[in-house]
């Protein structure tokens, strides 16, 4: 099976959920663009060092709830919760649509920080960790193999890592894959976590893709009955 589709989007409703949850008719396009800008703003503020594995956006008629799943909640919350106010102010400054609104029409931004308790088995955090190590000039093979060892110790059923670009500063770009056990991407009931990160080096960018297989999980009986 061609690996062209994001494993998360392929498994929505089966064993994955939407990362943006809201209903919209006339304002559908605006909400999607706004969600994208919010995600970019959070990524811009914390980058790879924030340990953000997932970001969920929920909307009510008069409020926007942003759930930040992170392995380093203390870094994001800051002293006495001051970090949450800084995130809120940063989002308002960096989302173009919010700049055009009057203060009375501004939706309430509620930010919740949720801890990821098993970061070694979170594909996005693993990809970010490898990218940080490559940027620090640690050998990409060593970084990938260490990540595989930690993921298997964290009870992952299988893992696959692909590193692409001018590896080791070589003239010709290439891709290399490392893995342990199987990652069944063609099996829809397989719970596969996926993460992607980019390492910025002096000789170009290096892309890191991570797939982590966590076992098979079928949808609830109610969803099967409706289908």
* Top-tier CATH class of the largest domain: Alpha Beta
Count every beta strand, where a strand is a DSSP E run of 2 or more residues. Answer: 8
Q: Cα-atom Rg, whole angstroms?
A: 19 Å
Low-confidence runs of at least 5 consecutive residues: none
Question: Could you report the average pLDDT, rounded to the nearest whole number?
Answer: 89
Describe the structure.
This protein has two domains: 7-115, K homology (KH) domain (GMP Synthetase, Chain A, domain 3, 2-Layer Sandwich), CATH 3.30.300.20; 119-216, 2-Layer Sandwich (Ribosomal protein S3 C-terminal domain). 34% of the residues lie in helices and 30% in strands. The chain contains eight helices and eight strands. A four-stranded mixed sheet has the order 1-2-3-4. A hairpin with a 2-residue loop joins β2 and β3 (63-70). α2 (28-46) packs across α4 (82-94). The chain is globular, with a radius of gyration of 19 Å. The protein starts with 6 loop residues before the first helix and ends with a helix. 26% of the residues are buried. The mean pLDDT is 89.
């Amino acid at each position: 099976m061609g690996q062209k589709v994001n494993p998360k989007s392929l498994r929505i409703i089966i064993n994955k959920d939407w990362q943006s949850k809201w209903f919209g008719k006339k304002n559908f396009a605006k909400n999607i663009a706004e969600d994208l800008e919010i995600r970019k703003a959070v990524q811009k503020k914390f980058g790879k060092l924030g340990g953000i594995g997932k970001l969920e956006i929920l909307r009510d008629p008069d409020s926007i709830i942003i759930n930040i799943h992170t392995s380093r909640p203390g870094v994001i919350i800051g002293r006495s919760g001051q970090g949450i106010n800084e995130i809120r102010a940063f989002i308002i400054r960096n989302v173009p649509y919010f700049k055009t609104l009057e203060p009375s029409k501004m939706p309430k931004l509620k930010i919740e920080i949720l801890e990821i308790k098993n970061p070694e088995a979170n594909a996005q955090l693993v990809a970010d960790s490898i990218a940080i190590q490559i940027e620090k000039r640690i050998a990409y093979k060593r970084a990938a193999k260490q990540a595989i060892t930690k993921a298997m110790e964290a009870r992952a059923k299988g893992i696959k890592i692909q590193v692409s670009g001018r590896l080791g500063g070589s003239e010709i770009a290439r891709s290399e894959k490392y893995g342990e056990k199987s990652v069944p991407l063609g099996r829809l009931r397989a719970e596969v976590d996926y993460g992607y990160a980019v390492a910025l080096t002096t000789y170009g960018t290096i892309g890191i893709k991570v797939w982590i297989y966590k076992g098979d999980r079928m949808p609830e009986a109610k969803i099967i009955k409706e289908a």
